[in-house]
Design brief:
The protein is of the alpha/beta class and 296 residues long. The chain has 2 domains: 10-58, no CATH class; 68-290, no CATH class. 51% of the residues lie in helices and 10% in strands. The chain contains 13 helices and 6 strands. The chain has helices at residues 22-32, 38-50, 82-85, 91-102, 134-146, 153-176, 185-199, 204-220, 231-234, 239-253, 260-263, 269-272, 275-290; strands spanning 10-14, 54-58, 68-72, 109-114, 121-124, 129-133. A 4-stranded mixed sheet has the order 3-4-6-5. A hairpin with a 4-residue loop joins strand 5 (121-124) and strand 6. Helix 2 (38-50) packs across helix 13 (275-290), helix 6 (153-176) crosses helix 7 (185-199) and helix 7 packs parallel to helix 10 (239-253). The radius of gyration is 20 Å and the shape is globular.
């Protein structure tokens, strides 16, 4: 990836007649030295924004003059279901149509789907091009088959592709809008993927189960010899930690129907206690960051 393109500048300023509470000042210092966790710091920022002590404004209008454009190559893969992922009206075509209904773009961004010789996906801001490799889909088939999840393999692969595709979209929009995001990029884009999948559908059961399918795959990755080498799965945070984080998003979205995560010891109780607040903060943060870039 190459340098950030500054499409629009976002200014954050304090009201001249407002006093920043002492506890906010303390929070900033504690967060800077690592004493305060990110969620508590986010709560403080949320307080400042909601009480108009600080405001986030776009310094220039963001003209909607672009679209996501799909350029997809044929696939000779023997394992990929081409009706779902390659043929006309496939997954990627549907996602591009959806993104064009939701987001404003200043210029076109191309989504290229092709064989790359390795499982990967990335965004090139100079070329304004997202790339998603067929090898990612193949490895999701192989991983689920290695875990003996053969009966529902198409669903599990779809859910894995969906989650990773939206981490790619998160990375793309972060660069496109020059968003003031901070922290580990892997965590940020996982949070974006959970936000998009859970908040842009009315079917909570379907979307929370989709997230769990991907979290389950991540959690079991280390048990599969097949999955130890690809760089995608070696990047921090660990696959197990990512699985816990996604499980927390699920529980935060629908704690009433996902008590099984605690009962089965999938999600530690001490983590679950904060998941509803954590997920609420994620939704609030992305709502604020993207509010100037939604079409409706």
């Amino acid at each position: 990836m190459v340098g950030i393109i500054s499409i629009t500048s976002i200014s954050v300023f304090a009201q001249s007649n407002s006093n920043v509470p002492e506890w906010i000042k303390n929070n900033a210092g504690w967060w800077a030295d690592g004493t305060l966790d990110d969620d508590s710091f986010l709560n403080g920022m949320k307080y400042l924004i909601e009480n108009k002590i600080i405001q986030i404004e776009s310094s220039e209008s963001f003209a909607d003059e672009g679209d996501f454009i799909l350029v997809q190559s044929p696939s000779n893969s023997n394992i990929i279901n081409k009706e779902i992922f390659v043929d006309s009206s496939n997954y990627f075509e549907n996602q591009v149509n959806f993104l064009n209904e939701v987001f404003i773009l200043s210029e076109d961004i191309q989504l290229t789907v092709k064989h790359c010789d390795e499982p990967d996906y990335w965004y090139d801001s100079d070329q304004r091009q997202m790339t998603y490799c067929y090898e990612m889909i193949e490895i999701f088939y192989e991983a689920n088959l290695a875990l003996e999840d053969t009966e529902g393999v198409e669903v599990y692969v779809y859910d894995a592709v969906d989650y990773t595709f939206y981490t790619l979209v998160g990375s793309t929009l972060d660069w496109e809008y020059a968003l003031p995001t901070t922290g580990n990029e892997g965590d940020i884009y996982d949070q974006f993927a959970s936000y998009m999948i859970l908040e842009f559908s009315d079917d909570v059961d379907l979307t929370t189960n989709a997230l769990f399918n991907y979290a389950y795959l991540l959690y079991n990755i280390d048990n599969s010899e097949l999955m130890k080498d690809p760089n995608y799965f070696a990047n921090p945070p660990s696959t197990e930690q990512r699985a816990y984080n996604i499980a927390c998003h699920i529980y935060g979205k629908d704690s009433e129907n996902w008590q099984v995560l605690i009962e089965s010891e999938w999600l530690p109780q001490n983590r679950a206690n904060y998941c509803e607040i954590e997920y609420s903060n994620i939704v609030y943060a992305w709502d604020v960051l993207l509010e100037n870039y939604f079409k409706n």
